[in-house]
Amino acid sequence: MIDIALDAMGGDFGPEPIVTGAIQALQERDDFQLSLVGKKDEILPYLPAEFENRVSIIEAPDVIAMEDSATDVFKRKESSIYKAIELVKKSEADAVVSAGHSGATMSLATLRIGRLKNVTRPAIATFMPAKDGKRSLVLDVGANVDCKPENLFEFGVMGEAYMRHALKIKSPKVGLLSNGEEDSKGNELTKESFKLLKKLPSFKGNVEGNNIFDGSVDVLVCDGFMGNLVLKTSEGVAETINYFLKQKIKSSPIAMTGAILLKGVFKLLKKEIDYAEYGGAPLLGLKSGVIIGHGKSNSKAIKNAIFQAISYVEGGIEVEIEKQLETLKEK
Q1: Contact, 97 vs 182, CB < 8 A?
Q2: What is the model's pLDDT at position 259?
Q3: CATH match of 1-119+285-319 with 3.40.718.10
Q4: What does the DSSP 8-state code read for residue 286?
Q5: What order do you get walking across the sheet with 289-293 strand by strand?
Q6: Rounded distance, CA 196 to CA 206, Å?
Q7: Pick from 33, 45, 37, 87: which is nearest to 62 by CA?
Q8: Which of 62, 95, 31 is nearest to 317 (CA)?
Q9: Where does 198-223 have alpha helices with state H?
Q10: What class has domain 121-278?
Q11: DSSP class of residue 21?
Q12: H helices present in the chain, as ranges
């Protein structure tokens, strides 16, 4: 049975939403078990006795706070994230989920779990809503600010493998984020990356910023600097639109009437851009699955992050990435 290690102390709100999300996941599926890592006396009040046969509690008295340095985690071996990742390293768990310090999680996972043989750098991937109701995967969104062409090539392979085998998209399309669709567009990095990505049968060429949300490609490749800008800009635009809508509705009785009629539409829009719907960001390129959740994750986000980790394990993502890179790098 699949075992997911869950950092029960990570996140901004303590163990309550994390353990609650874990219970919700256990209620919906009976084909996995959990290792909750953290302070046992703080976890137990939220854990119903009926699930104790599917949950192990691993005592971890220390917690890496958001304001701590990412490198602190290497010295604090009693912390919840350190112990959760060690479970995966020792093959006592199949994947790890944490909504705690993302930098600490990424650094520790990379060094303790380790990179796949043909991966030079792991990448953080995140989902963006698309007009066709599906989601596109953008990577990297922050792990690697400075990249080489071979890094972006690997990101394309990893993203394609994840969409195909974790999300079951039969023929995912890969695009390279650039400042124009023409093959000749881009800076030196994207131009050289374009040449390498052409080895990938699913590569459709350059795509522009407006293609992120139109569903024309399933995977968008970029360096971590550009990807983080895309991510933060998208979050800011969504918040601003929501603010303007609320202000206009408050200022006009006519708008208020229209808002009542459009309430269902607004609800659907919120669902599309809500990170809780997909749970977290997979760190691709490691020997085991690592899902990094948002610090403000609620119970729904944790539940979906656990499901995402299960899909990662079931999809055999590591094997598929290695197989693809082994084949394509020989060309």
Answers
A1: no
A2: 57
A3: yes
A4: B
A5: 55-59, 32-38, 2-7, 95-98, 289-293, 280-284, 123-129, 135-139, 219-221, 174-177, 203-207
A6: 13
A7: 37
A8: 95
A9: none
A10: alpha beta
A11: H
A12: 15-28, 40-43, 80-89, 102-112, 149-165, 188-197, 224-251, 253-261, 263-273, 299-314, 317-328
Residue with tokens 């006795």: 49
Q: Where are the domains of the chain?
A: 1-119+285-319, 121-278
Amino acid at 82: Y
Structure tokens at 259: 């808002």
How many residues appear in the chain? 331
Q: Is 130 helix (H, G, I), strand (E, B) or coil?
A: coil
Q: For residue 213, which amino acid is it?
A: F
Report CA-CA distances (Å) from 43 to 93, 130, 144, 282.
19, 37, 35, 25
Residue 168 DSSP class: -
Given its phi and psi angles, is residue 133 left (phi above 0), alpha (psi -120 to 50 degrees) or beta? left
Structure tokens at 27: 């209620």
Residue carrying structure tokens 């302070």? 39
Q: 121-278: same fold as 1-119+285-319?
A: yes
How far apart are the C-alpha atoms of 293 and 134, rounded to whole Å?
20
What are 242-295's pLDDT values in tens digits? 777 677 666 666 655 555 555 554 555 555 555 556 678 999 999 999 999 988
CA nearest 84: which of 48, 47, 124, 56?
56
Distance between CA atoms of residues 10 and 295, nearest Å: 7
- For residue 286, the number of C-alpha atoms closer than 13 Å in the C-beta half-sphere is 29
CA-only gyration radius of the chain, Å:
20
Q: Give the model's confidence band at 185: pLDDT under 50 very low, under 70 low, under 90 confident, else very high.
A: confident
Each residue's pLDDT tens digit, 60-85: 999 999 888 888 899 999 999 999 99
Q: pTM value?
A: 0.88
